[in-house]
Design a protein that fits this description.
Among the domains are: 201 residues, Valyl/Leucyl/Isoleucyl-tRNA synthetase, editing domain (Isoleucyl-tRNA Synthetase, domain 2); 62 residues, Ubiquitin-like (UB roll), CATH 3.10.20.590. Helices cover 36% and strands 20% of the residues. Strands 10, 11, 12, 13, 14, 15 and 18 form a seven-stranded mixed β-sheet that branches. α24 crosses α25 and α25 packs across α27. The chain binds one RNA strand of 85 nucleotides through α1, α11, β11, β15 and α15.
RNA sequence: GCGGAUGUGGCGGAAUUGGUAGACGCGCUAGAUUUAGGAUCUAGUUCCUUCGGGAGUGUGGGUUCGAGUCCCUUCAUCCGCACCA
């Protein structure tokens, strides 16, 4: 922490250090002879290079084909290979999975641990626009750099299984899956996707002719092509998914504001799988937060749809409500400005007011409209609806707090029991009748609510909720009873029915981009859409001169006429789809391709899929909690329904690694100060130019704050094993934690000590092991194993430190113990472990050695040092043999001089002895 | 507002089912060694203390022989969602 100048200082320091240690041997410890230095020094760079070459040459981490072995599939979220290379967040997750993979392999599992590249995406395309370099070239370079960096960390991936989403051999099958989505419909009754050929065409559709049939089928397909109001980013000239638009109405990628635009787009009907996607969450071992975020995103709510007659109109107004039981309290209705029936419901007198209101609402962005702090606004349409439960006339208003995109775009307003309606009714002096007698001890509040002067959204008993005219009476009932009775009544009178609503919308699945998977689709001049045959896949991207998107929202692909225009054998002309798939497409199924990455006959072999799936452990950042994981689960479920995969869920256990932050600095006013402009003096921090005192905070690493730590620097300064160990020792894997520069030194020292002690064979001896070492060794084997299973790497490392400290203190160790310990260290610091393993005379890689077995009997104690508490406070300790008589224990403990001092020889009130734990004396 | 999580020394963090709070590491202090130290080794390091002890895991309360852990209350921070009817 002394150094505030994290990146610059750090780099300087490591460079000096490296030069000192490696490049200038004459500067080394002068008291030793050169040869002594040679033998004692931990030359991590030589060691790491040696073993990385060995692993590469021997394909040590190649996944075997022995399907009789138990399998373990451990997966990392594959990276987008950006131009700036790895940051320290990548090795965190990768090291964790690497440790698990190595540990499982040593425990006899057939381990699948692959890596690949999610390589389609905007930066390479933008670079192409600027420089004319084809995105595939940029991508290739970046992948090569990422691969080099990852290999330099000693991560044991099976590189023969590397996948790349931009490889035609890969995206062929992404296109193939798209055709399956297109040719699937969702059978709501069976809650299952089924081939489109199995779709029954109703008789009236059949008689209506070919076009009607086509339209009917198109409406059922999981993938469809339609006009969609989409978010358009004028700066990127791209359509964005809802998910890519930030809360402030800006594009996630570029930060510029987005606008609305109507375009023909490919959409996927993910809401049909809402129930399945919800159900599946109950059966996977995922962080509760991620499950909740997905549930929230799907946004299921149950209630009823209710039809309201509208006076002077043959149309009825349908609303969705989660509280049909509050119908008696509905005193007005509100429809969204975009509601299709608005015009019909607007009377002549109100027309100009309504039109100007709607025009204004249209100008507001969705963001402004959903700003809670905003005053409610709205206009009366002039029409009245009839409340079905009591035949009261209630006014219909238009207001922008009702959103067209949710429910039916219209609501019944119950001002006394809904805060938004209450605000609106208050603002426009509409009546606020109370129909729920609040269940509250606050008498004043209850009075206010009963008078309609306050809003109550909690539980209560119904009042004023009966009508002689309609026969419905729910007075005195509870919430559940009221809802049930009202729904039944609505149903009987054909006025409504129970309904479920979801927030999740159709997934906008096309982008106006070059660098993505082309859709295997042809739009024919006669309006027909057809998909390419499997044999015609992959459909490659055309070579282009220019990558600029068209200004009207068309992708650059439209510029390639040769590629674009097609003619069928009958002379019919058509045009290829010019949109490409979003980046999510490739990442939706990559975990499936790893199991059979070179298969050119099918996306993967059924037998291999059957063996490897599901993924046993999936580790990655929480930023993919919703989108990637939801999309990918959706595709998986469709593939499952079609019999292409054998499991309903793809990922059994998910784990989110916490983000690694860094120290940053800000002034009193909150302005951020780049780390290279900060100086530390006596524990305080100052701006080096202005002298102003600045505060140290913890923030995300960013270029502008100059606090980015580059893994390459750590590797060159301390070695890959130190980087691995440090990232694991930093804290719990799922915690958000700041990078503390000095911490690397701690693990580096530890590795130095391990090297110094274990690489020096003079510390070994033959014969019986020291009892203390033996006990610690077996405790270490046990604890590290359990910790790896639980992903508690930080405590595993501290246990290894404890053992090493003990061994060094004792000064010697048996070869057998050393062999066992080094195998425990192996998954964490594989290079150093290999080095010592070979010094121990082993010929095969330690990665293929068996995990040592601990002996529980060695860990058994025959006596225990009891802490003795008097009235709950620790007073002394006493060693007692286990299995001692209760009376003898009491006698011995009470005879202890400290005990006598406190008890004065009197018999205590209570004497509590918890075997192998504690003794407590109550006086 | 709703949902999820987290609060422990100077710092990162330990502490299965309630059972010795502060493991391990950083930093710091002292000593050894060294021309030197950003090297290595040894000892110490929660705070207060009249050296008997006392206090202590964000706050306040409760259960218990015993609470970081269980219950209630309240505060703070982080993440996600948000006029979702």
């Amino acid at each position: 922490m002394r150094s505030s100048l994290v990146s610059v200082e750090f780099r300087k320091k490591t460079r000096i250090w490296q030069a000192f240690i490696v490049k200038n041997p004459q500067n080394r410890l002068i008291s030793h002879t050169e040869s002594e230095v040679e033998s004692m020094e931990y030359k991590f760079d030589e060691i790491e290079k040696r073993w990385q070459d060995y692993w590469e040459e021997h394909k040590t981490f190649k996944t075997g084909d022995d399907y009789s072995l138990p399998k373990f599939y451990v997966l990392d979220m594959f990276p987008y290979p950006s131009g700036s290379g790895l940051h320290v967040g990548h090795p965190e997750g990768y090291t964790a999975t690497d440790i698990v993979a190595r540990y499982k392999r040593m425990n006899g599992f057939n381990v699948l641990h692959p890596m690949g590249w999610d390589a389609f995406g905007l930066p390479a395309e933008q670079y192409a626009i600027e420089t004319g370099t084809h995105p595939s070239v940029t991508t290739q370079n970046n992948c090569d750099n990422f691969r080099r960096q990852i290999k330099s960390l000693g991560l044991g991936y099976d590189w023969d299984r590397e996948v790349n989403t931009t490889d035609p051999g890969y995206f062929k099958w992404t296109q193939w899956i798209f055709t399956r989505l297109y040719n699937t419909w969702f059978d709501g009754t069976a809650q299952k996707g089924r081939p489109i050929e199995e779709l029954e065409i109703p008789r009236e559709i059949q008689t209506a002719g070919k076009d009607a049939i086509k339209e009917f089928i198109a409406e059922k397909r999981l993938a469809y092509y339609d006009d969609a109001q989409v978010w358009w980013c004028p700066s990127c000239k791209i359509v964005c998914a809802n998910e890519e638009v930030l809360n402030d109405g800006n594009h996630e990628k570029c930060g510029n504001p987005v606008e609305r635009k109507n375009l023909k787009q490919w959409m996927l009907r993910i809401p049909l799988y809402a129930e399945r996607l919800l159900d599946g969450l109950d059966h996977v071992d995922w962080p509760e937060g991620v499950k909740d975020m997905q549930r929230n995103w799907i946004g299921r709510s149950t209630g009823a749809e209710v039809d309201f007659r509208v006076e002077g109109s043959h149309e009825t107004l349908r609303v969705f409500t989660t509280r049909p039981d509050t119908l008696f309290g509905a005193t007005y209705m509100v429809i969204a400005p975009e509601h299709p029936l608005l015009q019909q419901f607007t009377t002549l007198e109100q027309k100009s007011k309504v039109e100007s209101y709607v025009a204004k609402a249209g100008l507001k962005s969705e963001v402004d409209r959903s700003d809670l702090s905003r005053e409610k606004s709205g206009v009366f349409t002039g029409s009245f609806a009839i409340n079905p439960v009591n035949n009261t006339k209630i006014p219909i208003w238009v207001a922008d707090y009702v959103l067209m995109g949710y429910g039916t775009g219209a609501i019944m307003a119950v001002p006394c029991h809904d805060t938004r309606d209450f605000e609106f009714a208050t603002a426009f002096s509409l009546s606020i009748p109370c129909i729920l007698d609040p269940e509250t001890d606050d008498k004043d509040l209850r009075e206010e609510v009963l008078k309609g002067k306050a809003c109550w959204t909690g539980d209560g008993r119904y009042v004023n909720s009966a009508s002689d005219q309609t026969g419905l009476d729910i007075n005195g009932l509870s919430k559940e009873e009221g809802i049930a009775k009202t729904i039944k009544w609505l149903h009987q009178h054909d006025l409504g029915a129970e309904a479920i609503n979801y927030k999740i919308r159709d997934w906008l699945f096309s982008r106006q981009r070059y660098w993505g998977e082309p859709f295997p689709v042809i739009h024919w001049d006669d309006g027909e859409i057809s998909l390419l045959e499997d044999a015609e896949l992959p459909l490659l991207l055309p070579q282009l001169e220019k990558y600029e998107p068209g200004s009207h929202g068309e992708s650059p692909l439209a510029n390639s006429t040769e590629w674009l225009n097609v003619t069928d054998p009958n002379g019919r002309k058509g045009r290829r789809e010019t949109n490409t798939m979003p980046q999510w497409a490739g990442s939706c199924w990559y975990y499936l391709r790893y199991i059979d990455p070179k298969n050119d006959k099918e996306p993967f072999s059924r037998a291999k899929e059957n063996y490897w799936l599901p993924v046993d452990l999936y580790v990655g950042g929480a930023e993919h909690a919703v989108l990637h994981l939801l999309y990918s689960r959706f595709w998986h479920k469709v593939l499952f329904d079609l019999g292409i995969v054998s499991t309903d869920e793809p990922y059994t256990k998910l784990f989110n690694q916490g983000m690694i932050l860094a120290f940053a600095y800000e002034t009193e006013a909150g302005a951020k100060v780049p780390s290279d402009l900060v100086e530390e003096k006596d524990g305080a921090y100052y701006h080096s130019k202005t002298g102003e005192e600045v505060k140290q905070i913890v923030a995300k690493m960013s270029k502008s704050l100059k606090n980015v730590v580059n893994p390459d620097d750590v590797v060159s300064g301390f070695g890959a094993d130190s980087l691995r160990l440090y990232e694991m020792f930093l804290g719990p894997l799922d915690a958000t934690k700041p990078w503390v520069e000095n911490g690397v030194k701690g693990v580096y020292n530890f590795l130095n000590r391990v090297h110094k002690f274990f690489a020096d064979t003079s510390h070994y001896y033959e014969g019986d092991e020291d009892q203390e070492i033996l006990k610690s060794l077996h405790a270490t084997i046990k604890k590290v194993g359990a910790d790896v299973d639980a992903l508690h790497f930080n405590t595993a490392i501290s246990q290894m430190m404890i053992f090493t400290n003990l061994a060094i203190k004792k000064g010697q160790i048996t070869r057998e113990s050393a062999e066992a310990f080094i195998r425990v260290l192996g998954p964490f610091a594989p290079h150093l472990a290999e080095e010592i393993w070979s010094i121990l005379g082993q010929k095969e890689s330690i990665a293929l050695a068996a995990w040592p077995v601990y002996d529980e009997s060695i860990l058994q104690e025959d006596s225990h040092e009891y802490p003795v508490m008097i009235n709950g406070k620790l007073r002394f300790k006493i060693v007692l043999p286990l299995g001692m008589d209760e009376a003898d224990i009491k006698g011995q403990v009470l005879a202890h001089e400290t005990a006598l001092k406190w008890t004065q020889g009197n018999n205590p009130k209570r004497f509590i002895h918890v075997p192998k734990k504690i003794i407590n004396i109550v006086i």
